[in-house]
Design brief:
Length: 243
């Protein structure tokens, strides 16, 4: 995996620390005009380039090989300009920080894949976005330590045609203190009558013990569908081999 990051000082520590946990280790290129970002990027072993202007990015032909772009500058105008510069390279996933909610439609129209509000829980959001098909559990309110949020971003498991209604049944059965929300990649709520699609988010909110139990049961449901898919795939191969 190759990750491109345009970064301001404000977001350097949470983003670099999350990217550092990726396994296998990705190739990471960081651009910034801040000295602290340069120091921390080199500390983590990432390639660093001084950010002078947007035209500089438009000339980085190597970005055609990158899988993810994370744009976390301190102004929406800067993030939009960078989206315009890098989208020509067809990077599959472009994640950007949004400072003013009035600019959301601009980000979408310019090609942002995922948009994170600056005042949201940055660590959990970035972690979920670059670790798909993984449950990310956090306790965001120090005053309410027993309240937890579990976020799951769907990628590979979108192949299995899992009905959201079945996830809801598991939540009702095992998580009396848990609430389920499903959103598509643009942040719009998804109907319980829908099938999980690539980029969808599953969000569970509830009391820690009940939520963790519910996560385990929903994961069992996913694995059941995974096994069914695998069996069908193997059967398809056998039919092709033996006519």
């Amino acid at each position: 995996m190759k990750v491109f990051i345009a970064l301001s000082k404000k977001y350097v520590r949470p983003i670099l620390s999350v990217v550092y946990m990726l396994k296998p280790k990705p190739k990471v290129t960081v651009v910034s005009d801040d000295e602290e970002v340069e120091v921390l990027s080199k500390y983590y072993g990432y390639e660093f380039k001084q950010f002078n202007n947007v035209e500089q990015l438009a000339a980085m032909q190597e970005l055609r090989e990158y899988d993810i772009a994370i744009l976390a500058m301190d102004e929406d105008s800067k993030n939009v300009s960078i989206i315009k510069a890098v989208k020509q390279y067809s990077i599959p996933i472009i994640v950007t920080i949004l400072h003013n909610s009035n600019n959301r439609e601009i980000f979408i129209s310019e090609g942002a894949t995922y948009i994170i509000n600056a005042d949201e829980f940055l660590y959990s959001n970035i972690h979920a976005l670059i670790h798909p098909d993984t449950w990310v559990v956090s306790a965001p309110f120090s005053a309410l330590p027993k309240l937890e949020i579990a976020v799951y971003r769907v990628l590979r498991r979108a192949l299995f045609n899992i009905p959201i209604s079945e996830i809801l049944e598991k939540v009702k059965e095992y998580g009396s203190d848990v609430t389920l929300y499903c959103f598509n990649r643009f942040g719009n709520k998804v109907s319980e009558n829908s099938i999980l699609s690539t980029g969808d988010y599953i969000v569970l909110i509830g009391v820690a013990e009940s939520l963790e139990k519910t996560v385990r049961e929903v994961e069992k449901l996913f694995r059941k569908y995974e096994e069914v898919y695998a069996r069908r795939y193997l059967e398809t191969i056998r039919l092709k081999e033996y006519g």
